[in-house]
Design a protein that fits this description.
mainly alpha, two-stranded antiparallel sheet, 2 strands, 6% strand
Length: 69
Amino acid sequence: MYKKTVEDEILNKISLILNEFEGYEKPLVNSTGDIIIKNKSPRKPSKEKLVLTNIFKKIIADDIKKNRA
C-alpha cells in the first residue's frame, strides 16, 4: 500500500510541473514501473521513413502487376 501512495505523490508532482507546459498528456505508470509522459500532438514520420515506405509500396505494386501477367 505504501508503494502506491508514493507513486501517486510522484505522479501528482509531475502533473503539477506539466501543467506549466502545453502539449503533454497526464503521466502514467506502465506495467514495468516506468513513468510515461506523452506529447499531445501526433508525431510526423521523418522524410527517411516516408521515402522508404514509398519504395516498398512501389515494389509491392510492381510485384502484384507481375503476378497478374
